[in-house]
Amino acid sequence: MSNPVFSNSAVFGEPRRNGASRGAAQTQNPGTPAYGTPPQYGTGQYGAMDAAQLDAMYEAPAATTADTKRLTYDDVIVKTGGLLALLVVVAAATWTLAPGLWVIGMIGGLVLGLINAFKRNPSPALIIAYTVFEGVFVGGISFVYNSFAEGAVTQAVIGTVVTFAGALLLFRSGKVRVTPKFTRWLLIALVGYAAFALINMVLVWTGVLGGFGMRSGPLGIVIGLIAIGLAAASLIVDFDSIQRGVRQGVPAKFAWSAAFGLLVTLIWLYLEFLRLIAIFSSSD
């Protein structure tokens, strides 16, 4: 799994891993049904039911996911939309009032991002705090890029929205399947890209290389396109993780985890578009 928010989750992880987790849980608690398993009436902890009770039970309307407090796509959409709205508001305020605070936003977002990614249960307060810090970072860094590549922010936003929609359509169409081979390939590619980005950042910050470092010129454009492709592939894997969580009937509270995971990938995708557009502008 590419996104640590999903890969480190006991409910969004790979099918094999989830099966093992559920098996272990039921070994320790044999009376506890797995996610998505309907309770068995008539015996055990519910006791025996008479004919009238059984008749009333079967005539009652079927319970929805909202009634059972299970994860739904609507939950994920609402929470993701809310976090994105908060991000945009904070980013706009930072752009207008204090763009120089982007370094604080970057550090705070990194710390809170790691904490949220490795928490077993989601914390809405920490996820909202992460969104605020990332809003400060995105607003400030967007101001910096836009100062020497006017219009870069608008183009990056459009590119992000179009890529998100394209990845969702590909996933929904079934033309791109998330298989173990696909996720392994993506993981290897992401590790390689992360190592390259870290080395390049160190070389630029220490003054060994100027400008965008190894990401300048035609090579930088190629690397930028590859990074955007990796981010798009990560979105598809994120969609698959969310779909798996909904189908398995995981608790509704994990909509926060799903929204956080999508936000992380979307911010990365936006930043890659922003950097690529700036590289194009600098090469003119």
From TrEMBL:
The keyword Transferase does not apply. Residues 1-39 are annotated as: Disordered. It holds the Pfam family BaxI_1. Residues 1-10 have a biased composition (Polar residues). Keywords: Membrane, Transmembrane, Transmembrane helix. The keyword Membrane applies. InterPro entries: BaxI_1-like. It comes from the Bacteria. The chain crosses the membrane at residues 76-95, 101-118, 125-145, 151-171, 183-205, 217-237, 258-280. This is Bax inhibitor-1/YccA family protein. It comes from Antribacter soli.
